[in-house]
Design goal:
The chain has about 400 residues and is α/β, with parallel strands linked by helices. It is about 35% helix and about 15% strand. The strands form three sheets. It has a nine-stranded parallel β-sheet. The chain has a three-stranded antiparallel β-sheet with strand order 1-3-2, with no helix packed on it.
Amino acid sequence: MSGAGPTDGVPAADPGVPVLKLGNLVVDLPVVLAPMAGVTNSAFRTLCRSYGAGLYVSEMVTARALVEGNAKTMGMASFGDDETVRSVQLSSVDPVVMGRAVRRLVDEIGVDHIDLNFGCPAGKVTRQGAGAALPVHRTLFRDIVRAAVANAGTVPVTVKMRIGVDAGHTTYLESGRIAEDEGVAAVTLHARTAEQLYSGTADWDAIGRLKRAVTTIPVLGNGDLWEAADALAMMGATGCDGVVVGRGCLGRPWLFRDLAAAFRGEPVPAPPGLGEICPMMLAHLDLLCGLFGEELGTRQFRKHTGWYLTGFPVGSAVRRDLALASTVAEVAALLDGLDHELPFPPGAMRMARGHTNGPRPVHLPDRWLETADDPTPPAGGDLLVSGG
């Protein structure tokens, strides 16, 4: 297997390089691609995997849509031929539905890893009691995790969460202990509250506190990982067992190459110039078109163009035209017209890509905070469209 495989007692290829053990899976580097709506489809996963080992997780899918065989959801839960390790992120507010969805993933789709989403801060998700809102209801949280683990068999189940709803309602330490007690293979903390969304600075100290509270399974850290050095710094500062990379790899799939070098103790390669990035963009576009067809694939690629070109002085007209391109030929012609001698802008290394919004009050179901011990699944919470 490339990047991950079953535990078989064989040591890693390089005993000096840390690995990540998730139940019966061994990931060759302690690096996970964070699920991102509209981004981490099989095309993007393939591109990122070509740069380095790691665990590459799908977009979030909702359990009820999966159980009911929703066409969009089934497409999102599909995998390329190159994906020898199949990893899915799943969301649900109902233990029964969660259990059925996990069985379908295991028995019919043949997944190797399931991550449970308790961290999505999107208003359309939290107002239904799902995502980052759900850990407030600790009994329901336990029941959902228990159902997933029980139905997964030997397939490892992990949990991804945030610090809490807001600074006044933190849940991560209790949720981490519950998940550990229920037999999950690891817990991941995005070190922000739902209220923060993607604003401010991730609280890496919270990752350290979770690591000290959860002692028998790996604890993974997520938040503000823009360069390979950040991953080493996070693990050194918090003691966490691995990192989950989200926005830092948008427009920079080669970040996984840098992470591999850093974990091997090798010099991190210089960032690619525009002459390397343009072919990278076309390769990404080709993968998207292979997945969705040229029309939809090109539309899907539009948002990526701004991320790839962040910091490059290419001009607003080119950016606009790329954001409106509808064919591969249009994109290729626009990229061909750029100055391929431009080096990667040093200041762009830490420029935020993707979501930057927040803080914002969290939308919750009526009396959600006052009924924290109610195990009843919220009505309608599993009817969300997959993707988060």
